# Entry
Amino acid sequence: MKVVVLNILIPYEFEVTIIAERGFKSIDLFKFIDETLKWKYCIRCTKDMGISIAGKRKIKKLDDITPRKGFTKYFYNIKLTAQEYVCNMAVCTAEESEDVWFIANNISEPYAIREYKKRFNIEEMFRDFKSGGFNLEDTWSNDIQYTKMLYFCVCIAYCYITSLRVSCSKDKKNKLLGATKNIKGKKFRVYSLFNSGIKWFKRAYYSCRKKYYLKTCFIIYQ
# Structure
């Protein structure tokens, strides 16, 4: 898989950033991404991981760092674990939670938290690409060209389905889909943009062709 990904990305000279949850924390992985792949990374660490920060002798492990709510602390050229691996560390309290994020990274600018937050949108998209929508995990081919074309087609379909949902919202068809719910006077989204788009596609294409139609040309934002 590593070779396949490299063969796809290298020709385009993309600036790649690896974003991962605590289960992927590993000094060996940090070194591989930074030194071998020459990519960026923002990987969450567990609070029990050892850390050494110049001028802060009282801090022995990540749990000793206490960030203020709504603020992020950035530490550069710190040393992690007994291996004394040098990297950067961003620490903040998660939004709408008391959970603390410890993000090891090799980004020189203070953007690690911003990059790490992208993980949640990425995971939602992966779910839509896989069992939540297009079932890419059932793909039988290992051919790189086939995989590239398949992902290209799925990306187009994903954008179209998501755009359908936005269009439905602009045309005030949310009630037909049950896409939103009012709770104590506030409107909450019940389905993701993708799932709402899929529901509208099925309704317009399979169930009510004479009553509704699928747009192929629309303005999402002006």
Observations:
- The first helix runs from residue 2 to 9.
